[in-house]
Design a protein that fits this description.
The chain has 368 residues and is mainly alpha-helical. Helix content is 66%, strand content 6%. It is built from 14 helices and 4 strands.
Length: 368
């Protein structure tokens, strides 16, 4: 009953803080939708210029392929000296140079090289644009050759790609879920630390300690409300994404919410450890943001954990987000059950128990 009373107090404190309620609503309800609907890795109207030295029907036909929605042909270059100023002043992000003899080589069935001079200031986009142009050039060459290979005597590998769980490659599913999962981790890391440090700043922590409340109940009262808030916000955010992007829920929604609760508990344990280190609220928030960076980078969201060096791979075992991402994607998109995901659930339990124990130990050292 004492714990329930403390949890109720924390929930009322949270609901009275309008700014905090707005932040949580933004991160769980609006941010995943906005991220999925407005951000894309695909090339869209990428500004290019063309330097056609061949001026043949084939070169003009090739330039016609570099059209919207992928590319936007902004300029036709007439001399070499115009290329550098175009890239320097952002008039174009790439210049496609078609050399002399391009059309003749195409008609003869020979390789017809095309040069792409790209602005490498932002490397991922320039690499992606170059890959798009290379694919368009390959398709154009096949079309000009009548679709038949000129090397039919050689063995031909026919690779056919089949994508499961997301056959249409809907990017909104991955991006929105990624933001939703990250919102749960950030809130679980920040709020318990902030609430505990605020008790220290206001001097109310000493009043709690002289009451019949046990120290572990004080710490649990900071975690349990965040679990409740995160569960409600995650369920609401998932409903919005399902309605907006037809996001499927192929597995057990109850099992996913249990995983969310464990992820919040495990990440919140790190927040309680931060609260025992920080003396002021700004310090706690800064430490929480600093800690979130390795938690996120070690989750496998950016670089697969299998591709990391050995020491980093073992460090990923301490990242709650690693387990939560695998569980979330597997349940929602694959329909996987507990029989396959129990190692990740066990990882969340172990990390959460360990961080909570360390936080309780440090708390007793400070106020015991």
């Amino acid at each position: 009953m004492r714990l329930l009373a403390l949890v109720g107090k924390e929930l009322r404190t949270f609901l009275r803080d309008r700014a905090l309620v707005v932040v949580v609503a933004f991160m769980f309800l609006w941010d995943p939708y906005q991220w999925a609907s407005q951000f894309t890795f695909a090339i869209n109207h990428y500004p290019i210029a063309a330097y056609d030295l061949d001026r043949s029907p084939e070169s003009r036909a090739f330039l016609e392929e570099l059209r919207a929605p992928y590319f936007s042909l902004r300029r036709l270059v007439t001399k070499d000296q115009e290329i550098a100023p175009l890239l320097t002043h952002d008039a174009a992000s790439a210049v496609v140079v078609i050399p002399e003899g391009f059309g003749r080589r195409i008609l003869q069935g020979r390789a017809a090289p095309v040069q792409v001079i790209s602005d490498g200031t932002y490397t991922p986009t320039s690499q992606l644009a170059g890959a798009y142009i290379a694919q368009i050039a390959h398709d154009f060459a096949e079309t000009q050759a009548g679709g038949a290979s000129r090397h039919t005597a050689l063995p031909i590998v026919d690779a056919r790609l089949r994508v499961r769980y997301n056959p249409s490659l809907v990017e909104e599913w991955y991006r929105s879920l990624d933001e939703l999962f990250m919102a749960a981790v950030i809130i679980a890391l920040l709020l318990p630390a902030a609430f505990m440090v605020r008790e220290k700043e206001q001097g109310t922590i000493e009043q709690l300690l002289v009451s019949p409340v046990r120290p572990w109940e004080i710490m649990a009262s900071k975690l349990v409300p965040m679990v409740v808030v995160a569960l409600a916000a995650t369920a609401a955010g998932l409903g919005i994404l399902a309605a907006a992007f037809q996001l499927p829920v192929r597995g057990s929604l109850v099992l996913f919410l249990v995983a969310t609760a464990l992820a919040v508990f495990a990440t919140g344990g790190y927040g309680l450890v931060i609260a025992t280190v920080a003396r002021t609220l700004p310090t706690a928030l800064l430490l929480a943001f600093m800690l979130h960076i390795p938690i996120h980078l070690l989750s496998g969201n950016i670089t697969p954990v299998e591709a990391m060096p050995a020491w980093q791979y073992y460090a990923t075992l301490l990242s709650p987000q690693r387990y939560y991402l695998n569980i979330g994607y597997s349940i929602l998109l694959k329909g996987t059950g507990l029989a396959m995901l129990w190692p990740d659930f066990l990882g969340l339990v172990l990390v959460g128990t360990g961080t909570f124990a360390v936080g309780a130990w440090r708390f007793l050292r400070q106020f015991g």
